[in-house]
Amino acid sequence: MRILLVTPVPPDSNHGNARTAVRWSAVLRGQGHDVVLRHSAEEIVEADVLVALHARKSGAALAAFQQRWPGHPVVLVLTGTDLYADLPDDPTARRSVASADRIVVLQERGAERLPATVRARVRVIPQPAVAHIAWQPANDTFGICVLAHLRAVKDPLLAARAAALLPATSRIRVSLAGAVIDTALGVAATEEAGRNPRFRWLGELDAAGAEQLLAHSRALVVSSSMEGGANAVAEAIVHGVPVLATAVDGNLGLLGADYPGVFPVGDAAALAGLMVRAETDRAWFGALQEAVVARQPFHRPELEAERIRQLLAELEISLG
Q: Which of 23, 124, 154, 296 could form a disulfide with 148 if both were Cys (CB 3.0 to 4.6 A apart)?
């Protein structure tokens, strides 16, 4: 089949949608399909199937494709902002969901946010990750990393604020890696690094650098106010790195409903408490790691490839 894959950001960027687009393109080509990548409605071309990432931002491309080539199936891959911000109020996002032939969510709880009328079309395809290096945390400090671009929804400085609340005896150090999306947060990160001896901001790292940071950390903090199914969580899972995460559906859908290392959105004091417990309570820290390792089978690349193959097989039947 010829597949048109539309992503709202250029495929060569380091954003989550772009990484998903590049990965899906590789999987689809490996399965023998012809894939065309585009990132705007003006660039769309005819194809047997459209795969659109992001209900609102790719909504115009999705609508244009359906108008020009009616009857050609559409797969919509939903993000966190789709599920937890846009869908309740945004008409473009709602139209995209209502009209898609198949809807992909990245974690188990995603379908619960969608209208009952479309849930039969929903498929769960968790994002995979590969550990190129083993987990080898440094021994001189208790390193905690944050892998998040600097934008409000990620609350990227929460771990730094939590670190400032730690007792003087703590060996915890927080490292943030991420590009500046929100200029004000970039300024705040620079200021925080200047006054907080437990915090450093590394700027944007490439994939290898981010993996090095993760593999040399004791834990990952995911402090987002909403998530669709974060790449960083998948990467921590496959490396066996414990995660301290906000108790939002996108995180719990990846880590499991009973995952013990969660805290309320925006609560620096609660996060500080979990940090101290991770550092001082070996049994609890071991339970976090066991819970993370138990989720590894869901993030095998082979599972994603097989679920994508099954999805397209369903659409081939509809194409006749």
A: 154
Q: Which residues contact 239 (CB under 8 A, 6 or more apart)?
A: 131, 134, 135, 211, 214, 215
DSSP class of residue 86 equals I
The answer to whether 280 touches 218, Cβ cutoff 8 Å, is no
CATH for the stretch 2-127+300-319? 3.40.50.2000
- Write the single-letter amino acid at 20: T
The answer to whether 127 touches 80, Cβ cutoff 8 Å, is no
pLDDT at 11: 60
Per domain, the residue ranges of the chain are 2-127+300-319, 142-298
Helices (H) and strands (E) in the chain, counts: 12, 12
Q: What is the CATH code for 142-298?
A: 3.40.50.2000
| pLDDT average, residue stretch 17-36 | 90
> What is the DSSP annotation of 223-249?
--S--SS-HHHHHHHHHT--EEEES-H
Q: Are 11 and 37 in contact (CB under 8 A)?
A: yes
Q: Please give the model's pTM, rounded to 2 decimal places.
A: 0.89
Helix (H) or strand (E) holding 201: strand 199-201
Give the integer Cα–Cα distance in Å for 162 and 189.
14
Helical segments of the chain, H only: 16-30, 59-68, 80-81, 91-99, 158-163, 183-195, 207-215, 231-239, 249-255, 268-280, 282-293, 301-319
Q: Tell me, rounded to whole angstroms, the distance of Cα 168 from its chain centroid.
A: 34
C-alpha atoms less than 13 angstroms from C-alpha of 278 in its C-beta half-sphere: 30
Q: In CATH terms, are 2-127+300-319 and 142-298 the same topology?
A: yes
Integer Cα distance of 88 and 83 in angstroms: 8
Instruction: Band the pLDDT of 318: cuts 50, 70, 90.
Output: low
Asked if pLDDT for residue 165 goes beyond 70, the answer is yes
